[in-house]
Model the fold of this input.
Amino acid sequence: MKKLIIYLLLSIGFVVMIMPFAWMIITSFKMPSEVQQWPPKWYTKNFFSKRDVKVETKIGAVRTLKGISLSEALSFTSSKEEDNVLNISVEDDPFYRGVLTIDIKGFDYIERLSNSQFQNWLKNVDIPIEIQYDTPENFFEEVFLYFNSGSKPYFNRLEYISNLTGKFDSAISGINLISKFVNRRIKDKSEQEKFKIFLNSMKEQLFSTKEIIKKYKAGKYLVLENDEIKNIYDILSSLDLNYNGENVLNKVYNNKVVDVIKSEIKILEFYLKVYDYFKNIQSKVVNSSIVAKVMSKDEKYELLKNEISKIDNPILEEILSEKDLKDLPEKFSKKVDKYFMNEYAISISQLNSLKSLIVSYKNLLIEKNIDYTDILKGGNFNDLKYVSDERLKDSNTYKIFISKLENISSRIRNLDKFLKELMLYTDYVDEVRRVYNNSMNAWKIIKAPEFVKNIRVKNGEVIEIELSNVSPIYLSDDNLKMVSLKFSFGEVIKNVFQNYVDAWNSAPFGRYYLNTVFVATATTVLEVILASMAAYAFSWMNFPGKNLIFGIFLATMMVPGEVLLVPNFITISKFGWIDTYYALIIPWIVSVFAIFLMRQHFLAIPRELFDASKIDGCSHWKFLWKIVVPLSKPVIITGALLKFVGSWNGFLWVLIVTNSDKYRTLPVGLQNFSSDVGTLYNQLMAAATFSILPVILLFLFTQQHFVRGIARTGLK
Done:
């Protein structure tokens, strides 16, 4: 029975001790949304071969510019957008592989709406907001961006209902104000009574309507749905706001009450008219869903070769001749920078400043529909400046650009040619980046409607459907809320370990690993050598004050390590060792605990061995390394293992004395996953797992020596 209880307690202890490590492993496999899930689960969606992903169709461009270099960023023209791309935002955990099914079968659409038909309809529509558009599709896009899909949509549930109830409060306050002047301003007693009754009735009506409107604050989505908008319109339209009598306060009533509510009715009526017309013109039906699968790396590079070959540029051709397409945009951008620095004798800082200036100018030209590319290719920069002077004369941005241009004109030779080439080459950089990203994110189409040209999934967060002869606006109004994914067994394995790949690539962990191994090994080897010599001196050699010195050594173990950080840092700074390996190794190559551990073991070695070695002419040095150390292998391995683990896990000192990734170690690297925004626990757990694996493996291989070293220390 006693044995059973002991085994039970040991089993419980093992489970309690292993649980945190097991939970860390499971968390490292989880998706971001599963980390904070409550109650927590011991499995993850990554284990399954099927998955449904929540999505939302977005109107307009969705930018995904992660991982671009500074040189590329300075060349990026933010106003340039790809036409005919339907953007679907992933409102769920990202995905990177599998067979993707987008069920758009049965969606209504139209290829293009004729401008004449659109203008005939628009004649009868009163537009209450300012809209700039070139085509019918552009008009619909601007309207839906303003009301539903923009960064601050008009029909944002909480804001809109709050604003609308605020208008009701304003109208009620207007009625209260008018009521105070009824007796003074209206002389006719019957009209007075009639108007008072009407105002009180209208006030009650507005109160009850406001309470009904408030109920729409609660809803499934952040933006009001079209049925809710229609209901609110019907509620407001049912209000009989007009007073059929005549008195001097009528005008004030109309201004304070009627106009406030009717202005909102007018806006709602416009939106509903646009939406109804937009739905009615879509006469065609999509006859097939979209099915696509992820491309292999070779297929992506083959697609990239085909697409990039269409760009005619001598610098790009030089890079392509090297046949290494990895990080192509960055390589091309750096080559372009080098060309300008050599050709025009300018520094990289000057070039970056000029790039930023030119790109802001290009964005302004695109905004004003000035085709600068054709002007520059057919002429020079002065021709473009002439056009800009005419069409941008009232623009403050252009005036600032010209002012800055005049300041640098004397510092750059052949300025006209320089500006022309810089504008065209930044376009080339932007185009190469676009083609590269599109190719690297492309998926192979298995089945799709005939108007679907390409499918891309960017960063697992945005699905782009490139369309041919169909505007994406006509596919954005249907209720696409979910796409499905299927994974092969190999893809399931890749999904399970995706966090490990992301964690490894999020920082230079290869460098951190090398630094950690080097620093831990160096400190361990040096400590073993120094501690062995010191322990031997304190155990086998006789000299004045030996016990006193050893006692002082032991006393230093009572001093908290944090107290030594400041003096050590000052010392290291004086030597000029900040951000070097010296700072990571030298302060930690002596350990009093290792000296104490080895000394106690050395004292247990029989004295006769020393006497015999003396007879054979062995010196203290030879006796230490030929006899004492081999006999003390367990304790030396124990001390070395403790030092190695301590050095491997060192965080605070490394954080203080290093400024760059070149010298940082794994524990410091783990802080990359924490920021003011939050912590990526799944990637942090993945990085922690592959960080501690070497230490665990080391302990498994040396545990016998470790246990023996601890057990035998101090025995006589």
The CA atoms of residues 579 and 658 lie 4 Å apart. Strands lie at 50-58, 85-90, 99-102, 108-109, 284-285, 290-294, 442-447, 452-458, 462-467, 482-486.
